[in-house]
Design goal:
CATH topology of the largest domain: Nuclear Transport Factor 2, Chain: A
CATH class of the largest domain: Alpha Beta
Distance between the termini: 111 Å
Shape: elongated
Structural class: alpha+beta
Strand content: 15-25%
CATH superfamily of the largest domain: VirB8 protein
Largest sheet: 6 strands, antiparallel
Helix content: 25-40%
């Protein structure tokens, strides 16, 4: 009788020990999971939520890609005083929003234009066409990336005299760009026009 009671207590003790060990292991696994979980999650909402919206974590809506491309291109191509200094400054300031390949292309373009004297005292105004609004046809998927078409009016002046006044449809590749969120909260970058060429929509005198 005594041996039977002792065996039961030992069995119950082993059972409790297994439960405690199992709980400890579960707590360790949960702690490891929490430590490896991202501290920030990016959610990109579509602009029109009147009919509701469902977005996956990390999914980026075409309208946001379009807005990003238009904004960065406008910043890059507005030279308020002198293209010989403004162009290079813009490349450096916006480097977190440009892939290394596109940065190298812009740097080479700058050097060529400067050597030819094309940038000296040149002012450029790059503005979206007034009636241009987002349309899904302006953003094309290219694998995991996008091709964006931006309608802009480009005015250029040299010594105060206008030398260019065009309305172009500009193509630009946009790619996901995982860099420091402080430097680039969009998580996107311009990657050049690739095989695509600008389309002339109109020219003004």
């Amino acid at each position: 009788m005594f041996k039977s009671i002792l065996d039961n207590e030992q069995q119950a003790s082993r059972f409790k020990t297994r439960i405690i060990i199992g709980q400890l292991l579960l707590m360790i696994i949960m702690a490891l999971g929490w430590s490896s979980a991202p501290t920030q999650i990016s959610l990109h909402y579509p602009p029109d939520l009147r009919s509701g919206g469902s977005m996956k974590v990390g999914e980026i809506h075409e309208s946001e890609v379009y807005l990003f491309a238009g904004y960065i291109l406008q910043q890059l191509n507005n030279w308020k005083e002198n293209g010989e200094t403004d162009y290079l400054n813009k490349i450096n300031i916006l480097r977190s929003y440009l892939t290394p390949t596109y940065q190298a292309y812009l740097q080479q373009d700058y050097e060529t234009r400067k050597r030819q004297g094309e940038l000296r005292r040149r002012v450029r105004n790059w503005t979206p066409v007034a009636d241009a609004v987002f349309d899904e046809s302006f953003v094309q998927h290219a694998g995991k990336n996008w091709i964006v078409w931006i309608d802009v009016q480009i005015k250029e002046y040299v010594n105060g005299g206008i030398v260019k006044n065009l309305i172009n449809r500009i193509p630009m590749q946009v790619v996901r760009y995982d860099v420091d969120k402080e430097a680039n909260p969009w998580g996107l970058a311009l990657n050049g026009s690739g095989i695509y060429q600008p389309k002339l929509i109109g020219a003004q005198q």
